[in-house]
Design brief:
heterodimer, A: alpha+beta, Butyryl-Coa Dehydrogenase, subunit A, domain 1, Butyryl-CoA Dehydrogenase, subunit A, domain 3, 3 domains, four-stranded mixed beta sheet, 17% strand, B: alpha/beta, Rossmann fold, 7 helices, 13 strands
């Protein structure tokens, strides 16, 4: 049985998010991007649509949908703008998901309703200046002192950590040493505004300029012992266990960008005239756009396939890596081609493809670089 | 407060639309069919009144089986239930015939306020509210840009070219809305999920007591005899400026009665 048609509700969600992206996001996101400004009002509206609660159960204020519903929403947002899409992706996968998967019942009741409604955002503080995916390099520490965790250290590149909506950052920290001498790493929820927790300035980034990315520092930050998220010593393992599904989400976002490049190129090729006819009359342009569509369509199948296995409860690690690797490279290829179709205007920020070009590169880096994905795929095939 | 919103499914006005050459009716197959854009404002206004005063919002539509998509959109925005009049004999009905069907359906429903968009983007006949007011013997207020319900009175600012008229009518009444009245909400995901559980009642002409021979294309009071696409834009007129360009330009404008 092979059937990649979406059910009615997911199709209706896709239509709604597509209309929202075109009517609300597209007309104003360029200005936020230029100003390096987080579009708080747009993100609030995304919350009202229920996007931040999509994969969570209704008992915690979620929409009772699936992770695939989230992916479809990410694709439609990414088709118009990646900054708002990554804000949603990080808000769900990195912000709310660790609380949902590993948090205590009390933590879920306390945090999830506000996170699901988009009234509040949470961030995940894993990466440090000294290393991203290397748990052993974690230098931030947390020690128990009189019923409280006391945190010291710093984190880098943390999405959604300093917006007007941010209320919580879950931080990984060294909480001790194991018998074998390795570091014991745990996850601890730190509410925004806790004394000693300083949110740094926004980074100046090449792309994703309307999303919020910051450096965080912790100096003798005290939080209650019950802010431990999940098991002590399982902080990094917990993170790894939700990494694969995050790759499907990034794949969906990448497909959105790749498809957005097709949309913009089809429009421009029909409008722009050179030598007395639309540039789309030239086979060189037609072939570029056809190739872009082929790449976007096949990349979509890759993430559908990974999501389908995930929803069926089958192993999907390899499929997630394939989808993430392929669609992020497709996004980059399509951004390059779309910019070429647009000629000089493709180099102007006022055209969306300029934004797409700047936003595409990070997709080959974040949530596991292309090299990490190839390594994982080869390892899964028993090579090396 | 029982509010009924009349919703029509139409081909998306933002896309290429056509008539079916076999009988000159609106071509629905292959078209991107959506809720008539101005009807979305009527739905939003109904939900706003309901949220302020309580009550129930029912969607009423006449259309083919595929019009359930339009109904579901209205339900996902927050309407409570729907009545869908569907019958093959309705195909090709004119506005007067359609008003007889809608009036018969409304007479089987409870309503205090009937809302609908001021026109539809396919037929653009824009007479339905007046036809229904006449058939039902209730007041009509057309072209609302603002609406409030106070007790058993509906107060409406009726949009005009130069401003508005402040009108009021006793309920039950029918009010048509313009796109200046509000900003329709997007369906939330919870709304989308809830919509599939909301009741949709399907009615045939027999259920409404209407003789099928009195409706449909064969007995329509008006029908499309012929149609043609918009002619392609002409080449335009080129004026070579040989020192008298301005003169020739003005002469051209005068010949076209532009100046």
């Amino acid at each position: 049985m092979l059937d990649y048609r979406l059910d009615e509700e997911t199709e209706a969600l896709r239509t709604t998010v597509r209309e929202f992206a075109r009517e609300v996001v597209a007309p104003q996101i360029g200005e936020f991007y230029e100003r390096d400004e987080f579009p708080t009002a747009i993100v609030r509206q995304m919350g009202e649509l229920g996007l931040f609660g999509l994969p969570f159960p209704e008992e915690y204020g979620g929409g009772g949908g699936t992770y695939f519903d989230l992916c479809v929403a990410l694709e439609e947002l990414g088709r118009v703008d990646s900054s708002v899409a990554i804000t949603l992706e990080a808000g769900v996968s990195l912000g709310a998901m660790p609380i949902f998967r590993f948090g205590s019942e009390e933590q879920k009741q306390r945090w999830l309703p506000r996170l699901c409604s988009g009234q509040a955002l949470a961030a995940f503080g894993l990466t440090e200046a000294g290393g991203g995916s290397d748990a052993g390099a974690t230098r931030t520490t947390a020690r128990l002192d009189g019923g409280e965790w006391v945190l010291n250290g710093s984190k880098s590149f943390i999405t959604n950590s300093g917006t007007d909506l941010t209320e919580l950052v879950t931080v990984t920290a060294v909480t001790g040493t194991r018998a074998d001498g390795s570091k014991e790493i745990s996850a601890i929820a730190v509410p925004s505004g806790t004394p000693g927790f300083v949110v740094g300035k926004r980074y100046s980034k090449v792309g994703w300029n309307a999303s919020d990315t910051r450096e965080l520092s912790f100096t003798d930050v005290h939080v209650p012992a019950e802010n431990l998220v999940g098991e002590r010593g399982r902080g990094y393992a917990q993170f790894l266990s939700i990494l694969d599904e995050g790759r499907i989400a990034i794949s969906a976002l990448s497909v959105g960008l790749a498809q957005g490049c097709v949309d913009e190129s089809v429009r421009y090729a029909g409008e722009r005239e050179a030598f007395g006819r639309p540039i789309g009359a030239n086979q060189a342009i037609q072939f570029m756009i056809a190739d872009m569509e082929v790449r976007a369509s096949t990349a979509r199948l890759a993430y559908y396939r990974a999501a389908e296995r995930m929803l069926r409860g089958e192993p999907f690690k390899r499929e997630a890596s394939i989808a993430k690797l392929y669609s992020s490279e497709v996004a980059m290829d399509n951004a390059r081609a779309a910019t070429q179709v647009h000629g000089g205007y493709g180099f102007m920020n006022e055209y969306p493809v300029g934004r797409f070009y700047r936003d595409a590169k990070i997709l080959e880096i974040g949530e596991g670089t292309s090299e990490v994905q190839r390594m994982l795929i080869a390892r899964d095939l028993g090579v090396g | 407060m029982n509010i009924v919103v009349l919703v029509k499914q139409v081909p998306d006005s933002g896309t290429q639309r056509s008539l079916d050459p076999s009988d000159n009716t609106v071509a629905r197959a292959g078209a991107d069919n959506v809720v008539n854009e101005i009807d979305e404002y009527a739905i939003e206004e109904a939900l706003t009144v309901k949220e302020a005063q309580g009550g129930e919002v029912t969607v009423l539509t006449v259309g083919p089986a595929s019009a359930t998509d339009a109904i579901r959109k209205a339900l996902s925005m927050g309407a409570d239930k729907a009545v869908h009049v569907v019958d093959d004999a309705i195909h090709g009905s004119c506005a007067i015939q359609t008003s007889a069907i809608l009036a018969a359906a409304l007479q089987q429903m409870e309503y205090d306020l009937v809302l609908t968009g001021a026109t539809s983007t396919d037929g653009q006949v824009a007479v339905m509210p007046a036809l229904l007011a006449e058939r039902l013997g209730i007041p009509q207020v057309s072209g609302a840009q603002k609406l409030t319900v106070e007790g058993s009175t509906v107060k409406v600012n009726r949009q005009t070219d130069g401003g508005y008229w402040a009108l009021e009518a006793p309920l039950p009444a029918i009010v048509s809305t313009w796109d200046t009245i509000n900003e329709p909400r997007y369906p939330s995901f919870k709304g989308i999920m809830a919509a599939k559980k909301k009741p949709v009642e399907t009615k045939s002409l027999a259920d409404l007591g209407i003789d099928p021979s009195t409706v449909g294309l064969a007995s329509a009071t008006s029908s499309v005899l012929d149609f043609a696409g918009r002619p392609p834009k002409g080449e335009g007129v080129k004026v070579n400026d040989e020192g008298d360009g301005a003169q020739k330009f003005v002469e051209y404008l005068a010949s076209q009665k532009i100046v």
